[in-house]
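Quick illustration, no need to memorize.
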Amino acid sequence: MDFILFAKALLVGFSIAAPVGPIGLICIQRTLTQGAKAGFSSGLGAATADGIYGAIGAFGLTTVTQAFTSASRPISLVGVVFLGWLGIRFLRAGPAADADAPATTRDSLRAFASTLVLTLANPATILSFTAVFAALSGSTILDPNSIGTLIAGVFFGSAIWWLALAIGVSRIRHKIDASAMQWISRIAGGFLLGFAGWQLYSVII
């Protein structure tokens, strides 16, 4: 394995995941209300989606890329609906569950699947990763092993960020009372609805 290439891809994956957007809000809210495992599972769904789109871009699967790009509007509308649904759920959130109780496998899978679908609902990610991988490789034509190294680096870099975020938020959640946590969920829901509105505007304009 080319460890320098892996380190570069790791940094890229971390940097892509770090800005707080809809997925970050979801991860934070779920960590506060359900515990670190649920929060990390949410982030891992996003990291997996990044890995899938990254693989499509890295291997130059032009037909698949064109199919996703041509269907970007309906796919993005799915993301709008999903964001809006999550926003409403957060707004209507009741008292937080006991985060000391371990999240069930079903809870973790649902958290993982929701952010996986939400991240996949942004087909422009393929083009972003194609540009990133082109920049990392320079003028060199990458072999399959190097492409695999790039994809693994991006995935693990993203996963490291989500793990750090989930652990960090879980450390402070016990200092927040149930009423404040409920308000945090409502504020996060409001932001998610705002993101949904902005994405809808971007789709129809």
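The mean pLDDT is 81.
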